[in-house]
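A reminder from the course coordinator: this example appears on the midterm review sheet, so study it carefully.

Given structure:
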């Protein structure tokens, strides 16, 4: 296991579209979605849309079939599998929902690569309809972050992950995302960490307004090919640095513990 934690957004980062929009559009309910969107938060609209789909006879299998067709760049899966094979701790922090994400990851054959999925809860009720809930129940209490939507503050999730892994193992983070909701968590990382915002997407625009607010190293990417190239380069760089520190530390220990060096003559001073 390496000392690298990689946190991925999901929509437009791992997959190449928004999973909510994909399902709604593919099943022919775009107009209703657009009509409801101005009236309530996005997460609440998606729960309402699942109710509407169910009332029109759309089954869970129909939704799964649509999710199985979701577009993804061909280099994304190899990149994820390579990072996992190198011992990186892969996690997802997404404002999608657990049903969509797990269905897609299972279909792509990469579910086992991730140790944790942080997203909006979703479950199939007894009537066979998908119910989607907010990650933070904003009807009970606000999460208090002005940068994030009411149902999820990704920054708070990153705080919790950092608290659980950093102090003990001295981990380094790589964070990948595209949306405005990824800006808050990016501000939480330190100088030793790395962030990979998708170029010309909302999070990139927010960072470009004042890059000095981001403490972590910034490495942009455009598409799945660059996603793989930049990610693997960062992983290799971190691992080489860590190996160099380990070798240096081992050499010092061996020097201190080898008594033969105590018997060697002292070097002669050379006058200029």
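Designed residues:
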């Amino acid at each position: 296991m390496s000392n690298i934690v990689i946190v991925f957004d999901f929509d437009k980062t791992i997959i190449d579209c928004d999973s909510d929009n994909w399902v709604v559009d593919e099943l022919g309910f775009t107009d209703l979605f657009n009509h409801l969107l101005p009236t309530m938060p996005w997460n609440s609209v998606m729960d309402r849309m699942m109710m509407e789909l169910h009332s029109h006879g759309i089954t869970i299998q129909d939704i799964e079939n649509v999710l199985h067709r979701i577009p993804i760049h061909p280099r994304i899966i190899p990149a994820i599998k390579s990072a996992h094979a190198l011992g990186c701790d892969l996690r997802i922090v997404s404002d999608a929902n657990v049903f969509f994400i797990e269905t897609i990851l299972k279909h792509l054959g990469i579910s086992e690569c991730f140790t944790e999925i942080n997203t909006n809860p979703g479950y199939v009720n007894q009537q066979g309809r998908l119910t989607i809930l907010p990650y933070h129940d904003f009807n009970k209490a606000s999460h208090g972050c002005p940068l994030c939507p009411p149902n999820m503050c990704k920054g708070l999730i990153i705080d919790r992950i950092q608290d659980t892994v950093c102090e003990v193992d001295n981990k380094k983070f790589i964070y990948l995302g595209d949306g405005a909701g990824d800006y808050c968590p990016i501000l939480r990382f330190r100088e030793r960490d790395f962030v990979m915002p998708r170029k010309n997407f909302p999070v990139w625009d927010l960072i470009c307004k004042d890059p000095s607010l981001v403490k972590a190293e910034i490495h942009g990417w455009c598409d799945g090919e660059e996603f793989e190239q930049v990610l693997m380069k960062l992983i290799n760089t971190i691992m080489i640095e860590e190996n160099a520190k380990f070798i240096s530390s081992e050499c010092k220990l061996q020097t201190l513990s080898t008594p033969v060096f105590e018997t060697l003559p002292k070097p002669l001073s050379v006058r200029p």
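DSSP finds ten helices and eight strands in the chain. The longest helix spans residues 224-256.
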